[in-house]
Write a structure and sequence with these properties.
heterodimer, A: 109 residues, mainly beta, six-stranded mixed sheet, five-stranded antiparallel sheet, 11 strands, 0% helix, B: 114 residues, seven-stranded mixed sheet
Chain lengths: 109, 114
C-alpha cells in the first residue's frame, strides 16, 4: 500500500528557533494535510493543501504542496513551548487518508 | 464550527463487557470514520461510512461493530474485547466533495481492556 516517509522522527529545539519537517511519497496525492496531536488528544488540523505548488500559512506555520504532488513540508517559525507535540502529515487521493509516522517536537525553554 | 465530539473520554472494560463509543458532528459532513491509535503510532483506519452506509471495513474483527444511526451520529459497539484492543479510538468526519475531503478528528476515547 501507499506509504509516507516523514522526517525527522524527532526534534529537540530551543525556544525561538525555526522548525522544518517534510513528507515524501512514492505515489501522488490530491490533498496534503498537516495535523498536530497532543498526548491523549485527537489530531488537530493545522493546514490543508489542495493544489500542487500551493503555499499556505496559518500564523507561524507555513506548508507547501510539492509540485510533483509527492511531497509536502511544514515550517514553524519562532517556536514556543506550546508547539510541543507530534506532527503528522497525511495524504489523500481522495480516500483513505495515508499518515506519516509523525515528527515528535520538543521545545527547550 | 469544525467540532467532532466523542463520549466517553475514558473507558475501562473487562473482556466480557459490552460497551459503546459515541461520536457526533453537526457540520453537515456525510462521511464519518473510526480510527484506532496505539501509542507513538499514527491512526489506523477501521471503518468508513458514506451517506450513512458502511463503505470501508479494514478487516476489523467482529468484536468491533460500527453503527451509523443518522448523518450526525456514529457509534462503535464493543463486545468481548482483548487487552491488545486497548488504544485511543478516534472518530473523524469530512465532506464528500470531489477535491476537499478534509477530515476533522474528535478528541478520542481512551480505552483500557482488562
Amino acid at each position: 500500500g501507499q506509504q509516507l516517509n516523514q522526517s525527522p522522527q524527532s526534534m529537540f529545539i530551543q525556544e525561538g528557533e525555526d522548525v522544518s519537517m517534510n513528507c515524501t511519497s512514492s505515489s501522488i496525492f490530491n490533498t496534503w494535510l498537516w495535523y498536530k496531536q497532543d498526548p491523549g488528544e485527537g489530531p488537530v488540523l493545522l493546514i490543508a493543501l489542495y493544489k500542487a505548488g500551493e503555499l499556505t500559512s496559518n500564523g507561524r506555520l507555513t506548508a507547501q504542496f510539492g509540485i510533483t504532488r509527492k511531497d509536502s513540508f511544514l515550517n514553524i517559525s519562532a517556536s514556543i513551548p506550546s508547539d510541543v507535540g507530534i506532527y503528522f502529515c497525511a495524504g489523500q487521493l481522495p480516500t483513505p487518508l495515508v499518515f506519516g509516522k509523525g515528527t515528535r517536537l520538543s521545545v527547550i525553554a | 464550527d469544525t467540532e467532532v465530539t466523542q463520549t466517553p473520554k475514558h473507558l475501562v472494560m473487562g473482556m466480557t463487557n459490552k460497551k459503546s463509543l459515541k461520536c457526533e458532528q453537526h457540520m453537515g459532513h456525510r462521511a464519518m470514520y473510526w480510527y484506532k491509535q496505539k501509542a507513538k503510532k499514527p491512526p489506523e483506519l477501521m471503518f468508513v461510512y458514506s451517506y450513512e452506509k458502511l463503505s470501508i471495513n479494514e478487516s476489523v474483527p467482529s468484536r468491533f461493530s460500527p453503527e451509523c444511526p443518522n448523518s450526525s451520529l456514529l457509534n462503535l459497539h464493543l463486545h468481548a474485547l482483548q487487552p491488545e484492543d486497548s488504544a485511543l479510538y478516534l472518530c473523524a468526519s469530512s465532506q464528500l466533495t470531489s477535491h476537499q475531503e478534509t477530515q476533522y478528528f474528535g478528541p478520542g476515547t481512551r480505552l483500557l481492556v482488562l
